[in-house]
Amino acid sequence: MNVLDIITAVLVLSGSTLALTAAIGVVRFPDTLSRMHAATKPQVLGLLLVLAGAAIRLRGHADVGMVILTGLFTLITAPVVANRVGQLAYREQTIRDDLLTRDEMAEFGQTEDDGQN
């Protein structure tokens, strides 16, 4: 067992741990916005760590390019999906207002309404 195998093992195990905490957060958190946060932030970082470990293990193989593309696609799409889910949850009023410290969507809606009148 060499140093690269140890680094790969650490990356894969830490990424798997982050993915597990994301899954627990999705089940345990009370509202849509908290669940969305748990489903995107640690899940993406966990996946990137696992992919980095896989890329180190596959070094010199043709599949490393596919692993890099998978990571880039995840980085591009996860924030967009989280944004859309958050907007939809807000629009459908399925969020808990008592958990919000500042309601920026309401401020945005007021300025949008003012501009149309």
From TrEMBL:
<dbReference type="Pfam" id="PF03334">
    <property type="entry name" value="PhaG_MnhG_YufB"/>
</dbReference>
<feature type="transmembrane region" description="Helical">
    <location>
        <begin position="6"/>
        <end position="27"/>
    </location>
</feature>
<feature type="transmembrane region" description="Helical">
    <location>
        <begin position="64"/>
        <end position="82"/>
    </location>
</feature>
<keyword id="KW-1133">Transmembrane helix</keyword>
<comment type="similarity">
    <text>Belongs to the CPA3 antiporters (TC 2.A.63) subunit G family.</text>
</comment>
<keyword id="KW-0812">Transmembrane</keyword>
<keyword id="KW-0472">Membrane</keyword>
<dbReference type="InterPro" id="IPR005133">
    <property type="entry name" value="PhaG_MnhG_YufB"/>
</dbReference>
<protein>
    <submittedName>
        <fullName>Cation:proton antiporter</fullName>
    </submittedName>
</protein>
